[in-house]
Amino acid sequence: MFKLKREITFCYGHRLINYPGKCRNLHGHNGRAIVTLASEQLDDLGMVADFSDIKKIAGKYIDEHLDHRMLLHKDDPVLSYLKSQGEPVTVLDENPTAENIAKMIFQELTLKGLPVVEVELWETDTCVASYSTAASDHETTDLKKTAKEKSSSWIK
Ligand SMILES: [Zn+2]
Asked: How far is the CA of 23 from the centre of ligand 1 (A)?
């Protein structure tokens, strides 16, 4: 099995609802997403994937949906105010924890057809959460199937 990893840095704000600690207040992070792809075989160039293609695809998603945005739970009461002020927000059905952000990135890249096996989300230099195929084989299989059905070729 070959694996490769690509790191993408971005800034985001969030807060967790129904949480007793400091993270219940609006605050921000300089986050690092580390995307891991895996393949049993290499392409004609001897690669799992081109690092720049991963950056292009993952970076585009992160730029458009996560970077310099407030990530908030759909029931967060501050949501309507921020939207009314034109602030960039991304709404999640769940609390915007590092775990759920990693899962969002994982699912998006899987749908794009990347052979992603894990996404780590470093919220700080010492705290990391990840979402991987091993954590949810059934769901990932379904996503991969969906991606295959769409037959979107991500290698240009
Ligand atoms: Zn936080």
From this structure: 5
Could you tell me the residue range of the domain that residue 113 belongs to? Answer: 2-150
Please choose, from the candidates 136, 75, 144, 64, the residue with its C-alpha nearest in 3D space to the C-alpha of residue 103. Answer: 136
> 29: CA distance to ligand 1 center in Å?
6
Report the catalytic residues: 23, 68, 123
Q: Is residue 28 part of a domain?
A: yes
As residues whose CB is below 5 A from the ion ligand 1, the structure lists 23
Q: What is the CATH number of the domain that holds 15?
A: 3.30.479.10
**In the sheet that 128-132 helps form, which strands lie side by side, from edge to edge?**
89-92, 69-73, 2-14, 27-39, 116-122, 128-132
For 60, phi then psi, to 5°, come to -65, -45
- Tallying the residues shown for the chain, one arrives at 156
The alpha carbon of 156 and the centre of ligand 1 are apart by a number of angstroms equal to 36
Residue 61 domain flag: yes
Overall domain count for the chain:
1
Q: Quick check: is 136 in a domain?
A: yes
Residues 85-106 pLDDT 10s: 999 999 999 999 999 999 999 9
**pLDDT tens-digit map of 117-151:** 999 999 999 999 999 986 445 454 555 554 444 44
Ligand 1 geometric centre to CA of 121 (Å):
12
Residue 155 placed within a domain: no
